[in-house]
What does this fold into?
Amino acid sequence: MNVRFALAPMLCVAVGLLSCATSVAAQIAPGANPTQDEQMQALSRRLRDLRHQGRLREVLSQMGQYPEAVQRDDHVLGEWIQALLDLGKVDEARDLAASLPDDTVRVAPPLAVALVRLQYARGRVPEARQTADAMAEQIPRNPDLRALRALLDISEGDYAKAEAAMPSFSGNVAPQVASDVECALALAKAAELMSDDALLGRAVPLLEKALDKSPRRADVRALLARALVRWQRFEQASDLIDEGLAQDGLDDAGRAELECARGFLARGRRDGDAAVAAYEKVLELVPDQPQALLGLARCKSDAADYDAARELLDKCLSRDAHDLDALLALADVEGDAGRPDEAEAALRRVLEVKPNHLRALWQLSRLLARRGASDEVDALLKRYEERKKALDR
Amino acid sequence: MRAIVACAVGLLVASRARAASPDDVAQDGPAPPAGGERSSAVLFVEVPAEDSGIAFVHHAGARGVEKRFMIECVGAGLGLVDLDGDGDLDLYCVQGADVDEGGRIVTGPRSRDALFLNDGGLRFSPSGAGVDLGGGHGSGVCAADVDGDGDDDLFVTNLGFDELLLNDGAARLSCAPGASGAAGAETDWSMGAAFADADADGDLDLYVARYHAHDLSLPMLSGHPCTWLGCEVPCGPQGLPAQADAFFVNDGRGAFVERTSACGMALPQARYGFQPVFGDFDGDGDADLFVSNDSVENSLFVNEGRGDDGLPHFDEQGMRSGLALSDTGKAQAGMGVAVADLDGDLDDDVVMTNFAREVNACFVNASNAAFGPLFFDEGNPSGLGRPSYFDLGWGCNVFDADLDGDVDVFVANGHVYPHVQGCNISSTSFAQLDRVFLQLAPGRFAPPPGGAGPALDVAAPSRGSAAGDLDGDGDVDLVVAQLDGAPRLLRNESRRAGRFVLLDLRPLAAAVGARVTVEAEGTRRAAEVRAGSSFLCTEDRRLHFGLPPGEGTLTVHVRWPDGLSERFTELPSDGVRVLVHGTGQP
It folds into this structure.
């Protein structure tokens, strides 16, 4: 295994890279003759400082000036990848990381943290968790790592643990990272609150606060818009979406999020045509975006175009066979289309994933009642009652 | 109603409005199939109070956003019943009461109900002095001949003791002491009431739905915020203790004994009851009972006959029958109820109004001997559901508005909370439009394409609604109670597509629960005589049938609650026909 940078001698620095010494000179003691290691460390610190000051464009500018540094120093590379992640440029960060040899153990903290952040950003939470936990044994006090682990805690639903760690971030981690943690916490909590209508009102201020701090986060804005739609504040939701779509530099993923929220708003307003238009726009931007597929399927079902609805739901389910919303929508579509056997199959799939899903238990019992299957109806209703009692407690 | 309070922690909890996600509820789809488009022939015209003489204004505590308790928001029902025996429908208006600073109910002259006698021509006169009327904070009224003397008496539900007003046959009402055993407790908040001969012994038994404790310690703005869609509103029902309903058996002389538990009607957990309606839901000839409940499962008490103890025994089958929850398994608000044969298959279906962001439920009867009572919620497919998504429904009436031979549906709407007006909630207002749904094909309804007349273009905070032929012209008119307002009298001026008959079954006590099938021009329609329906209302107990055009006479089959089945033939249409028990052909 090839161990880079911290354990191996520093490679020679290319001529072009030497000039970077001037821009980082301020970080090296006056009168000292900096070694290449020192120059790299100074550059890394400089990049980190810029990130911490939120001056991300300057990080990119620096790295544009000294591209070879990335090849020479894992600290620098780590900071650059993190800067790209701070800017939401996950694909570019991924490409940069892809140039690293696979058999290299990353022991430079910035790079190790960067790679875990990248795993997280790409939705590879279990891998990120494994790496982060391993790193925590070596650098337990590293603030970036602590922030990263807080993000992972949030992903795993342990909000209290994340919240306990958050006060230590102030001034110690890049503002973008701190903001990511705050947004992730708000999004996760809000999504959970929004699953219960009685708690919807608590999601709105949470998201408003997060958006206030991170006004460019399209995902936060989109979720807030959806919460407002469910709160029946259509005008506010509409303004929020329009404002987000008008922002400079909005990428396709963000635009898709907001257009999807627009589709949700249109359905809330009972405007089926506008909803279809919005969802179709999302699918042009991000083909197979699950929320748009689901929303469009419901629109098609409303218009009694059951075959089209089923096709869209099949696409959803081919991405995630356990998508309960899609399965329940499929059961509705099949039921409305007069295909009770297919509706029953969809509901049984829901119950395979979540055996005590109340709605599925109820709807399946209704389908079976229509067939006269008394015993099975009674058994399902017994399960329903038991689950309900447990929830009521 | 939806606001809830977290008593234990003293914190708010939020609104309980459900079905909040637009993804949860089907959107407006294509018009219901079959039947095709037709221009609306339905027309309702409001008769102003100065013309009708109905000088009554309901009031319940504070007005508008000053209201702090649910008791100030629920409103009341009303009654259409011939109390003076002159053959036309009189109007009984249920009054609320003042609520003092501490939330206590203040009864007195301002809480007195009102009775208006029908003078004909849609003119009414207030009943004379000396007549006993309900005097509590009233909820609803239900008419039935409880003492078997041949006239209708009134049972008035209140927050506080309920009242039984016995009729001498000339609309001179007198309060029965202790409401003859059915007064309940001073802390009871009774809602709807319904009568039927549940034990088939020839007298009428009584079911009273109850809501929740009126908790004086939890007014709005007292540090216990309850919200609906982020709007602070009075608390209830969830979070407040539900009160158990009560079933009273009639001793044959108009006195009642509470037998809820003995008859199998006591539930493990009390529910927030709104409106009970008796009906033969499983088609076995006896009186079952449906109760709409707020925010929790509805109840269906299936009558299993009289036991050795002489009492009727019931089995609660709300869940199994499908009546407990919506098609997606949600407990709804369950406000008003109409039970009628909606699709012309001669059994009774159930329409139930609900909260905003829910939709009107339409439980279609599919009961059969093998499974027992069985219903499927077809709110959206029926066409009654989708247009009602933003409505908050209360009263509900099923009748043939245009005399075309099938029934139509009227729903009274109005938001429960005046407070929503200032909360910037889209597509929501306190005053709302009532709706008419015309039947286009069996079991398929839609709002009339051209509307239902100017009276239906007026938004108002409607509550209970009662249907009946008030002017004796053969079509069905409406009276709609308002929260903190005068009842609206809506005269039916619809273009008639066919004929009608109004069947008056006698004697009164024997008629409630009678099931009638009318045959005319090769069609058959069925209906049942009821006492207690809509939202906290009593309606014309005479059975009104719209009939297809034609010249032929009618054949009427009656199955009386005592088991007698008989046939009345050669009945002419377009009039009131009195059918007396035991005078038909076997």
